[in-house]
Design a protein that fits this description.
Organism: Litorimonas taeanensis
Protein name: ABC-2 type transport system ATP-binding protein
GO molecular function: ATP binding; ATP hydrolysis activity
Order of helices and strands: EEEHEEHEHHHEHEHEEH
CATH architecture: 3-Layer(aba) Sandwich
CATH topology: Rossmann fold
InterPro entries: AAA+_ATPase, ABC_transporter-like_ATP-bd, ABC_transporter-like_CS, ABC_Transporter_VariousFunc, P-loop_NTPase
Pfam families: ABC_tran (PF00005)
Radius of gyration: 18 Å
Number of strands: 10
Number of helices: 8
CATH class: Alpha Beta
Strand content: 25-35%
Largest sheet: 6 strands, mixed
Shape: globular
Bound molecules: adenosine-5'-triphosphate, magnesium ion
CATH superfamily: P-loop containing nucleotide triphosphate hydrolases
Structural class: alpha/beta
């Protein structure tokens, strides 16, 4: 069974068709990067997978569940990192994580929170400080930690590396590969060609709501950045 199956999906927002009959599959334990420019429809795709937007036509299934019928089941299997994750500035990292995990019915010990914060590389001395004096990258690390701590089989990540510096991006990429190695299915959307090539087993190129190309990692090698960049630039100019 595929982890995520999107078939002939059409989604409108307002008067415009934002997704124009896109189809792709994500295999269990793999990393799929949906790559596209601003306004291509990346976030719309994730919102449809979460049941927040209704398809005009086509189908969306997650681990065999149909998004229009079994949304409660689907939401238990998915952790979602939104494009602009909002955490409470007057709470510290531990308090934010505990609060949102409890809302999701998922209590964790301080040691478990520290393990996740270690994995995303948030400095130890910042963890008990209110998040209102965090940098954007530090806030993003806590948001990523939260999605890992949900311990769901599927992760949907919207621009996860936005705001991270190159070292933090490398750490994030290594973490994504590790999670995939543990069997998690990861669908991330990004406009970062380099980052997508570093982590993805497959890249789908989205342009104005249409899937116009796909690229696969070959055994033992990552996807070639130059090839994808050229396709991205060419398609964007077309
Ligand atoms: N709430 C909305 N109502 C109507 N149209 C919307 C709404 N949100 C987004 N759109 C339109 O849908 C299209 C796709 O938007 P979407 O947010 O999915 O793009 P994206 O690929 O995530 O872009 P970005 O890289 O900027 O995050 C855009 O043309 C946008 O104008
Ligand atoms: Mg977006």
């Amino acid at each position: 069974m595929t982890a995520i199956t999107i078939k002939n999906l059409v989604v409108s927002r307002g008067d415009s068709k934002v997704l124009q009959s896109i189809s792709f599959e994500v295999q269990p334990g793999s990393v799929y990067a949906l790559l596209g420019g601003n306004g291509a429809g990346k976030s719309t795709s994730l919102l449809t997978l979460l049941g927040f937007l209704k398809p005009d036509s086509g189908s969306v299934t997650v681990l065999g569940h149909d998004v229009t019928k079994d949304i409660a089941k689907i939401r238990h299997t998915i952790a979602y990192l939104p494009e602009a994750a909002t955490l409470y500035p007057h709470l510290n990292a531990y308090e934010n994580l505990s609060y949102f995990l409890e809302l999701a019915g998922n209590k964790k010990t301080r040691a478990e929170l520290d393990t996740a914060l270690d994995e995303v590389g948030l400095q130890v001395d910042a963890r008990a400080r209110h998040m209102d004096n965090y940098s954007k990258g530090m806030r993003q690390k806590v948001a990523i930690a939260l999605s890992i701590l949900r311990e769901t089989p599927v992760l949907l990540l919207d621009e996860p590396t936005s705001g991270l510096d190159p070292v933090a991006i490398d750490e994030f990429n290594a973490l994504v590969r590790k999670l995939s190695g543990q069997g998690k299915t990861i669908l991330m959307v990004t406009h970062d060609v380099y980052g997508a090539c570093q982590v993805a087993d497959r890249i789908g190129l989205l342009r104005r709501g249409e899937l116009v190309g796909s690229f696969d990692a070959q055994a033992g090698a990552r996807i070639d950045t130059e090839i994808v960049h050229a396709a991205f630039a060419e398609r964007a100019a077309a």
